[in-house]
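STRUCTURE:
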């Protein structure tokens, strides 16, 4: 069993799906805590309803990213966290946390990286950019987190046609359904299979 901390800033639908898959025994893990930067996050309500300890830690409370990271790590070590799962978390993970949890932080991005990613590319902005570009395909990317936004080694991706979508919101809805499936699959994979990171490539053994 691996101990997971979920980080979420918003409604938390990915968090909910991951939790449900764990409860159904599909992923050998326990969500030990939820960390958010937003005391209004919907994810907080779900965590409280399910007796998952919650922590609101916002970077504005600290005078450096390092201290913000230390506050996060205090919680992570209290729960002996093995893996961090970012599920709609909008703040940059401090470098000191990335260093300690090197290749043990996952993020989900609602497009096919390396396109449509980077600083400021989150939530509806991603889907607006995809829509405006005229791309006929979008998708989901799950990647390991490094110190740059959306640039860490890719664990898995799934593409889908968006030809039938007439608005960015329609793309978002179509992509979200796939996120809910792919994120749990990716978590299961990194927790149960051996992998190596070479450069920016994730290579799973025996594949
Ligand atoms: C998802 O689209 C995810 O890919 C992105 O933020 C959104 C979070 O949605 N990183 P939710 O809070 O999990 O519903």
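SEQUENCE:
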């Amino acid at each position: 069993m691996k101990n997971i901390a979920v980080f979420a800033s918003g409604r938390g639908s990915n968090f909910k799906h991951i939790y449900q898959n764990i409860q159904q025994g599909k992923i050998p893990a326990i969500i030990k805590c939820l960390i958010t930067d937003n005391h209004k996050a919907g994810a907080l309500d779900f965590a409280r309803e399910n007796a998952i300890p919650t922590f609101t830690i916002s970077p504005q409370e600290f005078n450096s990213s390092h201290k913000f990271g230390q506050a996060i790590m205090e919680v992570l070590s209290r729960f002996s966290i093995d893996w961090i799962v970012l599920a709609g978390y909008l703040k940059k993970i401090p470098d000191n946390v990335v260093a300690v949890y090197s290749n043990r932080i996952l993020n989900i991005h609602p497009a096919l990286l390396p396109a449509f990613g980077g600083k400021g590319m989150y939530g509806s902005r991603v889907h607006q950019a995809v829509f405006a570009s005229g791309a006929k395909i979008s998708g989901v990317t799950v990647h390991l987190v490094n110190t740059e936004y959306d640039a860490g080694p890719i664990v898995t991706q799934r593409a889908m046609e968006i030809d039938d979508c007439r608005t960015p919101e329609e793309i978002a809805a179509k992509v979200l359904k796939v996120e809910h499936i792919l994120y749990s699959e990716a978590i299961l994979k990194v927790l149960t299979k051996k992998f190596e990171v070479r450069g920016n490539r994730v290579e799973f053994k025996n594949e």
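REMARK: Residues 104 and 142 are 12 Å apart (CA to CA).
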